[in-house]
Write a structure and sequence with these properties.
With 271 residues, the chain is of the alpha/beta class. The chain is built from six helices and nine strands, in the order H-E-E-E-E-H-E-E-H-E-H-E-H-E-H. It has a single domain, classed as Rossmann fold, CATH 3.40.50.1580. Strand 6 (125-133), helix 3 and strand 7 (178-185) form a beta-alpha-beta unit. Helix 1 (3-16) crosses helix 2, helix 2 crosses helix 5 (213-221) and helix 3 crosses helix 6 (246-270). 44% of the residues are buried.
């Protein structure tokens, strides 16, 4: 990855009318409904943006959408990239560098995750307070990383405290149950065994997924304040583990998403 590649991506998007967005938003698996809230949308499909990877998962549609939500200019990733699709960490996080280059000042991230904390239920939303990286690598581990920012990035508080407090207050006001906890990111695409769920619980994880952490690491390198929420789509009880139903996971994500959209819209108004 080079600065020149990022500049070419930015040049294409600027010509399309992607002008000074304030907030970047990444939508997770089954969480695409937010795009219907975008006013005056301009779309750019990933396969048209120079150097962008292509989305391969069927429930990720693969486009960058620019427009207005709650009176603020936003750029939304509808479809993200995962290690399990065969991408590397630089592919996965390339869009974060492009959105930062467009001018975003804050980043919102959503994902679908499994609840390891058995006090949490499917259909809940979890505000991510911290994470554990079990993906076996880093999006900062490449030779010319210093062209893009510091090599040794502080991760003592990767998720912005101020925005977290705002989200908690919004959830309380709107009557939305909001859990808080630690997200662990694994490679996938296979789901966990009973023994693996037990291990993740011992490690201190409240929810498990296959995304988000690489993007958060790069956002921290770029000193981009970030907020992230997990829509909990299944309960990972190793003593009562049922075979996975991907269709049910997508349905639960879809049913819970309006609450997440409400949180994001209200937060956009307030920041």
């Amino acid at each position: 990855m080079t600065k020149k590649q990022v500049e070419e991506s930015l040049e294409y998007l600027n010509k399309r009318g992607f002008e000074s967005p304030e907030i970047g938003i990444i939508l997770g698996t089954g969480l695409g409904q937010l795009v219907s809230e975008i006013e005056n949308p301009i779309e750019a499909h990933y396969n048209h943006i120079p150097y962008f990877p292509l989305a391969t998962v069927e429930f990720h549609s693969g486009k960058l959408i620019y427009g207005t939500i709650s009176g603020k200019k936003v750029v939304v990733m509808q479809g993200r990239f995962h290690l399990y699709e065969g991408y590397d960490f630089l592919d996965i996080t390339y869009p974060i560098r492009v959105m930062h280059g467009l001018g975003i000042k804050k980043l919102f991230v959503s994902n679908a995750a499994g609840a390891i904390n058995l006090d949490f239920k499917k259909g809940d939303i979890m505000l991510i307070e911290d994470h554990i990286n079990l993906q076996g690598g880093s999006p900062l581990a490449f030779k010319n990383v210093v062209e893009f920012g510091d090599r040794f990035v502080d991760m003592s508080e990767p998720y912005d405290l101020e925005m977290r407090k705002k989200v908690e207050a919004i959830a309380q006001k709107e009557g939305i149950t909001l859990q808080k906890g630690v997200y662990v990111s694994v490679v996938g695409p296979q789901l966990e065994t009973k023994a693996e769920y037990r291990m993740l619980k011992i490690l201190g994880a409240d929810a498990v997924g296959m995304s988000t952490v690489p993007e958060v690491i790069v956002a921290n390198q770029l000193r981009l304040p970030i907020i992230a929420v997990s829509v909990l789509t299944d309960e990972c009880d190793p003593d009562n583990l049922q075979p996975i139903n991907i269709q049910e996971i997508i349905e639960i994500a879809g049913k819970t998403e309006p609450k997440m959209i409400q949180l994001f819209k209200e937060l956009i108004k307030e920041i």
